[in-house]
Amino acid sequence: MSPSSVGAPQRILVADDDPVVRHLVASVVRRAGYAPVTVEDGREAVRILQSDAGFGAAIFDMMMPHLEGIDIIRHMRTEKRLMRIPVIMMTSETELKLMKDSFEAGATVFLPKPFTALQLQFSLSMLLSKSSRTGRPSTKASGAFGARTPPGKGLA
Questions:
Q1: pLDDT by residue (tens digit) across 104-126?
Q2: DSSP H or E segment with residue 13
Q3: Strand 146-147 vs strand 11-15: parallel, antiparallel, or unpaired?
């Protein structure tokens, strides 16, 4: 079943301060059958989330003006209505500590830049297929990029 086969497509919140990356991510999201809602900084993302928790997933850049992606995730994980939204964290930073920090904050998938459209589409598909079956975001995945694992479990 495709995301848009039952009613309106799921909306995906996309926050990135780089207009080129924002456009690329929105295009991949749209081609995958979802409806992107794009913003250019972390403060705008939080503003939208305060009034609207109806997103199937979110994709945040790590480094943005006003609020970084990790800060948005920390905020989301403190509010019951936002906790269920799985988050892909993107970054061009190469420090492995950022991956660890992202997962500890509550990110579901860590996607290093540059990434391919197929990697993003796979990550999104994995998140949304798992969360639509269980009503909760996916907590484990496999592949070349990181995914959150349950506490006490290491990445295989």
A1: 999 999 999 999 999 999 999 98
A2: strand 11-15
A3: unpaired
